[in-house]
Design goal:
The protein is mainly alpha-helical. It contains seven helices and no strands. Bound molecules: fe (ii) ion (2 copies).
Length: 207
Amino acid sequence: MNLDRAIVEVDRALRTLWASAHSVRPLPGGDLPDVPLDREQRRHVVGLMRVNHCGEICAQALYQGQALTSRDLVVREALRGAADEETEHLAWTEQRIAELGGHKSLLNPLWYGGSLGLGLLAGVLGDKWSLGFLAETERQVEAHLDGHLSCLPEEDARSRAIVGQMRLDEIHHAETAVAHGAAELPAVCKLAMKGMAKLMTGLAYRV
Ligand SMILES: [Fe+2]
Ligand SMILES: [Fe+2]
């Protein structure tokens, strides 16, 4: 990697972790009323949105790592395109956390570093495995967002609109990965990914 490229990649990482993300699309549900939530509901919703924000930090790092090691230009471009959409998810969840007076996960740098390493490794294994890893990640995120939609307060239409649109985007990302030749991961890999996601979501909900 030449110096210019290295600077661009480090800048990308620093902006993801410490700058506010920007969205081209408007905030889903941005015109819906912000119905007051009681203290316990607000704590719960902030926890869920912090988990989602942390997941998007991980997505940025995974995509960055995979794009860096991918051998195919078309795949690299697809990864960059999906990463742009994940940046919007980052912006939406960040905005909702701020609206509710919460804070982002303190462990984000740790998860970013781990996810970048995983993305680099997946890319090194070859594009079909890298895309398979991506497709499985997106499917697990979709299931996880389904879980959030079932436990977010019905009256919190703003949070529900954000999670609903993210879910649709993640489904599309998985389909894109499959269309570019994703391989089906072995069951043991899927299980390991679920275990790691459980650890991350459990911690991010609290800190
Ligand atoms: Fe996302
Ligand atoms: Fe995604």
